[in-house]
Specification:
Blueprint: E1 5-15, H1 25-32, E2 37-39, E3 45-49, H2 56-75, E4 79-82, H3 101-110, H4 112-115, E5 121-127, H5 131-141, H6 145-152, E6 157-158, E7 161-162, H7 168-173, H8 188-201, E8 214-216, E9 222-229, H9 234-256, H10 268-280, E10 285-287, E11 294-296, H11 297-315, H12 318-331, H13 334-345, H14 347-360, H15 378-381, H16 383-386
Antiparallel strand pairs: 1-3, 1-4, 1-5, 2-3, 5-9, 6-7, 8-9, 10-11
């Protein structure tokens, strides 16, 4: 069973000189043309959609090329594209919503929530055999989603101020009526009945407004991860995609073997764990999904990596994912790195650093660790360096 992957990335558009958000997505999309890019609720955001890939190498190359195209189109208009949960110089305003009937209806119904939707995320899709499996797998992968949020945390600033959180985007996102943990369902029929009830209630207008941390796609046969901030480093998206695919594969295999342990209905701790990850990023404790007690982020993520090693080796992803995780833990979250630039040089410089890292694509391959050629994944991991590299990327990194 080979599960393919794809990703959606959202990007802020900012003025290249001031670092402030600008509602010019329409002009950028006109320059880009063709498929692969789309507008979002706010006119200061552009979404990119990758193709479907069997390998992390393919996903990396696709996302890197997509970012470079977007950077070129934005630059021609005096703009830069920034992949981050929030940007420091956001300023909510009425009237900056995309002129689409659905978005205009949302702006009218949700008012301040829509006005402040100046946030960007990275979403990962993974193949599933069928919708029933997707729905039942949510319960199994749910406990491990908060550590993936911690890896992606890139939004410490809001309205020019440090929020004290690594992912303030999470706090803004959780105000929507259907955001947060997905809960558990016996199958697609139960889940779809819930969606129908929510739509009939008038709280949401369509299935696309179900904003759970993980959900079955409304249009594709995939399970979709939605908890993560947009990531300045494209390799962070690839790391999250590799871990999430392994989680979904493991869940599908356990369901096929009828090893589902059943649900105890205790989902409150999932929201608490997401809050902790949003607060701490990689720099503080996370809630250990096994013990439900605080533990260093490094410990929780190493536990996750060890748990998924058999699946990662099947896909040939073990060496690449392990190296990327060690890099993430060594360098710290994008939130921590962004704070360093902001404190030294101010908000405009921080936005410029985010934009530079976003446009850089995959970092140049550095010498891999001596043991990187060993292990079952070596043969399939090697092409990653040719595609841009899973090297350390520290040299010249604007957020380091």
């Amino acid at each position: 069973m080979t599960l393919r992957i794809g990703a959606e990335e959202e990007f802020h558009l900012v003025d290249a000189e001031t670092g402030r958000l600008v509602p010019r997505a329409g002009a950028v999309l006109e320059r880009l043309g063709g498929p692969g890019y789309a507008p979002e609720l706010q006119r200061s955001v552009v979404e990119s959609n990758s193709g479907v890939h069997a390998t992390l190498e393919g996903l990396l190359a696709d996302l890197t090329a997509s970012r470079r195209r977007l950077a070129a189109a934005a630059s021609a208009l005096g703009l830069t594209a920034v992949a981050a949960g929030t940007v420091p110089l956001a300023a909510p305003a009425r009237g900056d919503v995309t002129a689409d009937p659905r978005y205009l209806r949302m702006a009218d119904q949700y008012r301040r929530l829509a006005d402040e939707q100046l946030i960007c995320s990275a979403q990962v899709h993974v193949d599933v055999p069928d919708r029933d499996t997707a729905v039942r797998a949510m319960c199994l992968v749910g406990p491990w989603l908060a550590p993936l949020l911690a890896l992606s945390a890139s939004s410490p600033y809001w309205l020019g101020a440090d929020t004290g959180y690594a992912s303030w985007r999470t706090m803004l996102w959780q105000r929507w009526p259907t955001a947060g943990p997905a809960g558990c369902h016996s199958g697609a029929a139960s889940y779809d009945a819930l969606l129908a009830d929510l739509i009939r209630s008038g709280v949401i207008s369509d299935p696309g407004m179900v904003y759970y941390d993980v959900r079955p796609s409304a249009h594709q046969r995939t399970l979709e991860l939605r908890i993560c901030d947009a990531c300045p480093r494209v390799t962070t998206v690839v790391l999250v995609a590799g871990l999430f695919r392994a989680l979904v594969h493991d869940a599908c295999a356990r369901l096929a073997r009828r090893e589902h342990p059943g649900c105890d209905g205790r989902h409150e701790w999932l929201r608490a764990a997401a809050w902790q990850a949003a607060r701490s990023g990689l720099e503080g404790p996370l809630t250990d999904p096994v013990t439900l007690r605080p533990a260093p982020a490094r410990t929780v993520l190493h536990t996750l990596l060890a748990r998924l090693r058999p699946v990662l080796e099947v896909y040939g992803d073990w060496d690449a994912v392990r190296e990327l995780l060690e890099l993430a833990l060594a360098d710290g979250s994008a939130a921590r790195r962004l704070r360093g630039v902001y404190e030294r040089r101010g908000p405009a410089a921080a936005v410029a650093a985010l934009a530079a890292e976003t446009a850089a694509g995959a970092p140049t391959a550095a010498a891999r660790p001596a043991d990187a050629a060993a292990g079952s994944g070596a043969a399939r991991s090697a092409p990653v360096e040719a595609a841009g590299g899973f090297g350390t990327g520290r040299a010249g990194n604007p957020l380091s």
